[in-house]
Amino acid sequence: MPLLCKECNGRRFPIAFSEERDALWLCEKCKNFVNIKDEFIREWTEKEMEESKSKLENFQKDITEGKTPEIKRRSGVN
Ligand SMILES: [Zn+2]
Q1: Which of 28, 58, 75, 78 has its CA 20 to 30 A from that of 39?
Q2: Which residues are near ligand 1, the ion (C-beta closer than 5 Å)?
């Protein structure tokens, strides 16, 4: 998977689009998308930058806060 950008070696993030079958991988530095085969798809538009901002923030939050107590809480039910 294209987890790292070939151009800047930065981390790519999978972005899901309703019109695409598979998620596209975004490099925030190079501002472009590749597909799952690491092939260039297109540039990241300014409109998408705004729209994706909150999504990306949530995604990164999920990673950094990986130790959420969700699983523990579930076992405590009943
Ligand atoms: Zn890059």
Answers
A1: 58
A2: 5, 7-8, 10, 27, 29-30
